[in-house]
Design a protein that fits this description.
This protein is mainly α. Helix content is 42%, strand content 0%.
Length: 77
């Protein structure tokens, strides 16, 4: 099974994920496999995004976000 980025999901991995799915609800229901898989993938992607931010070296201290003076409305200056 190929997906958009040219990667292939191994059949053994699919078999392992589908263990215990006996009814459609087990796969598609509120607490089903697809919801849990989506949640786990999003957490993994967000974790990678937070730990691998371009422009910062590994272990560097980050400064808090500050607006540039030009973007602050005149009334607040």
């Amino acid at each position: 099974m190929a997906w958009a980025m040219g990667k292939t999901i191994n059949d053994e991995i699919l078999d392992e994920l589908l263990k215990g799915c006996e009814r459609p609800e087990d796969l598609l229901g509120g607490g089903g496999l697809l919801r849990e898989l989506k949640k786990a993938l999003m957490q993994r992607m967000l974790g990678a995004e937070l730990s691998d931010h371009p422009g910062y070296g590994h272990g560097s201290k980050r400064r808090p976000f500050r607006r540039a003076a030009a973007t602050v409305p005149a009334a607040r200056r």
